[in-house]
Specification:
The chain is mostly helical. About 80% of the residues lie in helices and about 0% in strands. The protein contains twelve helices and no strands. The protein has helices at about 5-15, 25-40, 45-60, 65-80, 85, 90-100, 105-120, 125-140, 145-155, 165-175, 180-195, 205-220. The model has no long low-confidence stretch (mean pLDDT about 85).
């Protein structure tokens, strides 16, 4: 009776082990298999695990219409289960979609909902990821107080964060706020000392996109 659950979690562990963009197709296939198993055996937590993995892979594939459909399926299943440990993911993804469309007020509202629900479910990840989104939303209006607060939350929740991630986030923020000199100093350290040390994991695409944007803007900055 436990075999579907064991197989589902084994497939999920495989997705985590191959979390980088090079294995996108494999992760989508594994997520689909997990969902199929879960629906067949009426296991809602397993279904939500598969849908979460699928949403992440769809985001990385830039398949935003499919992302929106999958978020809706996830939210309906999570609402039926009624456990905030699972419920906070849907508003987090909706915040990310709102940010991508430039709907900053909606993005901030959804991020706040994600943090609130995550706190009810005792999820530290919800506070961390919510602070990341709050940081990104606060850059456009140059809200330095909120930016500083979000950065502080991120560092508090992940005290052992690899220094390259913090340096890159700081460089991205500085160049978006118009301080090309500060951003360039941080980026030089990344390029010369640690670029090749960054693992090709689930953070790789986000890390690389920030690096490209920050480097491009810094190269064109009036220093």
């Amino acid at each position: 009776a436990d075999q579907p659950l064991v197989l589902g979690h084994a497939l999920a562990a495989r997705c985590d082990a191959f979390a980088g963009p090079a294995h996108l197709g494999e992760r989508l296939a594994s997520a689909d298999e997990i969902i199929t198993l879960a629906l067949r055996h009426h296991d809602v937590p397993l279904e939500l695990l598969g849908r979460r993995l699928r949403v992440v892979a769809l985001f990385e594939s830039l398949r935003y219409s499919d992302v929106d459909l999958e978020i809706g399926r996830y939210r309906r299943a999570a609402d039926a289960l009624g456990d905030p440990l699972y419920s906070w993911y849907a508003p987090l993804w909706q915040a990310a979609r709102g940010f991508g469309r430039g709907e900053l007020d909606d993005a901030r509202a959804f991020a706040s909902e994600a943090v609130r629900l995550g706190a009810q479910g005792h999820s530290q990840n919800s506070a961390l990821l919510g602070s990341v989104l709050d940081l990104m939303v606060s850059i456009e209006p140059r809200d330095r107080a909120r930016i500083a607060g979000s950065m502080e939350v991120m560092l508090t929740l992940v005290p052992d964060t690899v220094s390259e991630y913090h340096a890159l986030s700081s460089a991205y923020v500085e160049i978006r706020l118009g301080d090309g000199a500060a951003a360039r100093a941080l980026l030089n350290a990344i390029w010369t000392a640690s670029f090749n040390a960054i693992p090709r994991d689930s953070e790789w695409l986000a890390w690389l996109s920030q690096l490209v944007i920050a480097s491009s803007m810094t190269a064109n900055a009036d220093l």
